[in-house]
Structure formats: structure tokens, C-alpha cells
Backbone:
């Protein structure tokens, strides 16, 4: 069994967050290393003529990942904690970690000076780190999040709602690592029924009620007002 996994996420994506809860449970049980990496839905879904996220003073998920890049340089455990608190704020509590004032509060919640936000925004190399992680997924043929790299394989998913824990989490981990061991297995997908759509809506309710952006994963659209804003 693999000893580590690279987990690419966009903090604005509810499905990546659900999968992150599962991989954290797997980590707690097995001791695998989870290396948090970035991917931008803002950029991959950018409409021609709109600004790239790195061209904006503040750009929702991209800016949160720039903060994460600076934290990762100092200590990967800080990025681990950062993703946990911003994910909980957005996807469980319906808050707005992409508001700079809220982002500063959450930095202090993990024991980091709120000034780190300004430091990350003033450092152009944080753009470079997010872009490099994003490009890695594209170069591997990826298109969204969650994307995992393990044992030399790039896998999209698993896409989860109500992520499994305990023994069931480990069973899913065996499925994922088993697929990684079979490089010519390309897709395994469960069609969504009306009951599935209702379950997804209930599970993502805090996120959906507070939404003010668009999040898209290859045809999975949460229809909201904006992802990249105007201009």
C-alpha cells in the first residue's frame, strides 16, 4: 500500500472538501502522508476575455491557495490546518473564508499571525507555486478536483458526499489504491438518481445557501453568480 498521496484541491469545491475528510480519516488510521497541493477551478473554467485569477487583487479560491502556499513553505502542517479550517468555515458552517477579513480570523484560529494574508498577497512567488501545482494536474490530463497522485498514477476523485469513516474509509482506500495499480482502468462511475441529487443537495446545504461563485468539475455545475467576478 502506498505510503503517501498528493491531494490537489480548490478550497471552494465542496466535493474536494468531502473527499479531504475521508483522506484525513484514512491518514489517521494508516499513517499515510497526505501532501496538499492546489488546483484552480477559477482558472480552468475561466471565460475567454476574463482576467486570470492571478491578475486580480483578490480572487476567492486562488488567493486562499496563495496563503496556503506561503504556509506550506514554512511548515506543511500549517497548510493542513489551514485547509481544514477554511473548508469547515465554508462547507460546514456556510461562512465566507474567501472574504479577506474572515480569512485573517481563520489564520489566527490556527495560531498564525493575520498579517500572513498581506504577506502572501505581496509575494508574487505564491502565484507561481499555485500555478505550478495547477499545471501539474493539467499536464497529467486532469481537469478538476479532487485529483490524487499516488504510485505514479493521477486519479480524479473519489467524488464523495457523506464520506465514509472507520472501516468503510479503509475499504474505499483499497478501491482507490487498487485502481491506481491498474493503469489501464480509466473510469468507474455511478450514475446519479433523483434520490442521489436530493442527498447531495441536503449534504451541501450550508455551501449552497451561502454561495456567491460558480464551481464546476467537468459537467458538475453549482449554478451561482460568479467564480471570477467581473472584468
Residues:
Amino acid at each position: 500500500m502506498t505510503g503517501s498521496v498528493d491531494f490537489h484541491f480548490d478550497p471552494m469545491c465542496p466535493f474536494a472538501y468531502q473527499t479531504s475528510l475521508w483522506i484525513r480519516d484514512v491518514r489517521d488510521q494508516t499513517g499515510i502522508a497526505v501532501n496538499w497541493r492546489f488546483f484552480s477551478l477559477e482558472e480552468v473554467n475561466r471565460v475567454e476575455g476574463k482576467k486570470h485569477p492571478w491578475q486580480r487583487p483578490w480572487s476567492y479560491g486562488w488567493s486562499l491557495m496563495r496563503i496556503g502556499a506561503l504556509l506550506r513553505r514554512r511548515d506543511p502542517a500549517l497548510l493542513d490546518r489551514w485547509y481544514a479550517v477554511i473548508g469547515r468555515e465554508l462547507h460546514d458552517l456556510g461562512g465566507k473564508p474567501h472574504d479577506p477579513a474572515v480569512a485573517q480570523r481563520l489564520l489566527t484560529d490556527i495560531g498564525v499571525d493575520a498579517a500572513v494574508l498581506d504577506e502572501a498577497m505581496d509575494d508574487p512567488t505564491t502565484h507561481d507555486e499555485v500555478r505550478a501545482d495547477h499545471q501539474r494536474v493539467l499536464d497529467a490530463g486532469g481537469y478538476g478536483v479532487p485529483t490524487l497522485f499516488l504510485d505514479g498514477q493521477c486519479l480524479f476523485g473519489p467524488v464523495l458526499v457523506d464520506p465514509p469513516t472507520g472501516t468503510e474509509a479503509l475499504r474505499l482506500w483499497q478501491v482507490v489504491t487498487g485502481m491506481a495499480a491498474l493503469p489501464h482502468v480509466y473510469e468507474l462511475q455511478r450514475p446519479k438518481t433523483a434520490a442521489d441529487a436530493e442527498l447531495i443537495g441536503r449534504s451541501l446545504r450550508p455551501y449552497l445557501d451561502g454561495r456567491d461563485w460558480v464551481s464546476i468539475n467537468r459537467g458538475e455545475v453549482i449554478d451561482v453568480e460568479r467564480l471570477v467576478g467581473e472584468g
Remarks:
- Residues 14-30 form the longest helix (17 residues).
